[in-house]
Amino acid sequence: xxxxxxxxxxxxxxxxxxxxxxxxxxxxxxxxxxxxxxxxxxxxxxxxxxxxxxxxxxxxxxxxxxxxxxxxxxxxxxxxxxxxxxxxxxxxxxxxxxxxxxxxxxxxxxxxxxxxxxxxxxxxxxxxxxxxxxxxxxxxxxxxxxxxxxxxxxxxxxxxxxxxxxxxxxxxxxxxxxxxxxxxxxxxxxxxxxxxxxxxxxxxxxxxxxxxxxxxxxxx
Length: 220
What we know:
This protein has 220 residues and is an alpha/beta fold. It contains 8 helices and 7 strands; from the N terminus they run βαβαβαβββαβαααα. The protein has 2 domains: 2-136, NAD(P)-binding Rossmann-like Domain (Rossmann fold, 3-Layer(aba) Sandwich); 140-211, no CATH class.
């Protein structure tokens, strides 16, 4: 396949470029970090698929501005924002990335079947080969990600305020360090966007707040 990646110089863009080239695809790209000019639309039209590895709101706007481009693939972590593009954009969530590139057995892709055009799962299968693909709806996806992403992201973003010495370390302390490192290794901007755009973030954070208040009630 001829694949064009918008945002190919970002962390995920670089990772996808390498992964897809390993699978034998011809990969080209554009990134505003390297070129202030607009991407060559004629080059995009020649592509079999266009991956939007850019902030999700920008991906949504790009799709709105270019309805003539075929097989645009958005890869964001929140899908409700894409529901007005039903049938016009392929929506997936790769549950892997540069920080988990060695976890080959855990690579999965969620395919958003009530946003993506009918039959477009075949394009994703051809693109990613043997990686497991699971169809889900956009609302189900966002509910899952509120639990799987929003909660750990929130804890990680506030964790620098919770400091501890290194003289002694427990298993729970090591676990806390792993959670703290999420915000060091992931893009804090992407993490905050995943929280702010997810319609179920407030519900999850409300549960976290109630649990904390309950625990604080027992502190003397």
